[in-house]
Design a protein that fits this description.
The protein is mainly α. Helices cover 77% and strands 0% of the residues. Residues 419-428 have low confidence and may be disordered.
Length: 428
């Protein structure tokens, strides 16, 4: 087979299209916090009801992710991504016809949850691994930032539209954005470079395509979970990452805007502040990756979780202040810490679990979304029952202390290398 080496390798076009697809799919992830107040004003739905829909979304997002690779093996990246974007578009578009709260569970929860779950981190990993030999880390980092960029792009737009012309227009903009990416995916996303008589970017002259998996991806995911669940290190990482999800996506990501609204801050202003998280999220993730290459990932996680806990303890007083620059400082600091936990968590999974580390991280990531789903619902119940989010912020801070302790319990590099403590089976 004759392979070509174009001047600009098509792998970069595939990666760029994947980035745009991730931005399009991330549109909804910016929406719920900005739409809580308009939906409550029109329908009278409680924060608990709307939080339940978001919780279903986050739960399905997390549980679908470990199996997304199996879907891509069976049906192809292009097909799975196209269907995922169509589900996000359909779920957001159908909300304009809602009259009952259960319909929010179907649209926000099931349709968009399954759609975004099919385009989780495994989508970025599949693109990077299939189309790149060199620069995989760079590509993975850029694609991971797609979610933060989506939040940055859509959150101020959604909030402004909801405030000026109504939440239905904002929902249709999200639906149209996801739909607009579909032609690009169909045109430019390729399943394998060899299908186009190409080699991956950076491949050697004698590169030969690896044998393709013809089945069993789902079984490998389940087997990896069964194996990892017998090791204490897995539960420490999963529990800490669940707290990470609870204190970011579930708590601040969903409830910061309505909490700021409770304290008299306009929704558009609060949405703009939360969008700043997206900017500093990118910087924080890149810096965290640099630190992870040079320092013990366990120590980094302890610092990140402790730092986050301090921010949550301070948040109620910051929101109550009449002088607002301090809340800007909180948003900047929290943005730097938002997904800084990802690089050290991935590194620990790879270090501890070896070749199965990537699959194990898929399940650790699922725990992240489970934690986010629980926190989104609990925070909504706290707001409805107490009239404020204060207990939710303090509870999140307490969980951060637990996450720091769990990270410390993983042990020093010498202990991780020996695996005597880390791979001790949990008594069944």
């Amino acid at each position: 087979m004759t392979r070509t080496r174009p001047r600009l390798h098509p792998a970069w076009l595939v990666a760029a299209t994947a980035f745009v697809a991730l931005v399009g799919a991330a549109g909804f992830r910016a929406a719920p916090g900005a739409l809580f107040v308009p939906l409550h004003d029109e329908f009278g739905w409680s924060t608990s009801v709307m939080s339940l829909a978001v919780s279903v979304n986050l739960l399905l997002y997390g549980l679908t992710a470990p199996f997304a690779a199996a879907l891509m093996d069976k049906f192809g990246i292009r097909t799975v991504t196209t269907v995922a974007l169509l589900m996000v578009s359909l779920g957001s578009g159908l909300t304009v016809f809602m009259t009952e709260s259960y319909q929010l569970l179907i649209t926000w929860g099931v349709l968009i949850g399954l759609g975004t779950g099919s385009m989780a981190m495994v989508f970025a990993a599949t693109i990077a691994n299939r189309w790149f030999v060199e620069r995989r880390g760079l590509v993975m980092g850029i694609l991971t930032a797609g979610g933060a960029t989506g939040q940055l792009v859509f959150l101020p737009i959604v909030a402004a539209l909801a405030d000026s012309v109504g939440w239905r227009t904002a929902s249709l903009v999200i639906a149209g954005s996801a739909l607009a990416v579909v032609p690009l995916v169909i045109r430019f996303i390729g399943d394998f470079p060899e299908d186009r008589q190409l080699t991956p970017y950076g491949a050697a002259d004698d590169w030969e395509p690896p044998a393709r998996e013809t089945g069993g991806s789902a079984r490998r995911a389940i087997d990896a979970l069964r194996w990892a669940s017998h090791h204490r290190a897995f539960w420490a990482l999963a529990a800490a990452f669940a707290i990470c999800g609870a204190t970011t996506n579930g708590l601040v990501g969903i409830h910061f805007i309505p909490a700021a609204h409770d304290h008299g801050l306009p929704e558009t202003t609060a949405a703009g502040l939360l969008a700043v998280v997206g900017i500093f999220d990118i910087a924080g993730t890149v810096a965290s990756g640099w630190f992870t290459d040079r320092y013990d990932p366990r120590i980094l996680l302890v610092g990140y979780y402790a730092f986050r806990g301090v921010g949550l303890v301070m948040l109620p007083s910051l929101l109550s202040q009449t002088v607002r620059p301090s809340i800007v400082l909180f948003v900047v600091v929290y943005g730097l810490d938002w997904v800084a936990t990802v690089p050290p968590t991935v590194a620990l999974c790879r270090e501890i679990f070896g070749e199965r580390g990537t699959i194990v991280f898929g399940w650790v990531f699922a725990s992240h979304q489970i934690g986010a789903a629980i926190a989104a619902l609990v925070a909504g119940v706290i707001r409805d029952s107490t009239g404020s989010y204060t207990l939710a912020w303090f509870g999140g801070a307490g969980l951060c202390v637990v996450a720091a302790a769990l990270s410390w319990a993983i042990g020093s590099p010498g202990k991780r290398e020996s695996r005597r403590e880390l791979l001790e089976p949990v008594p069944m």
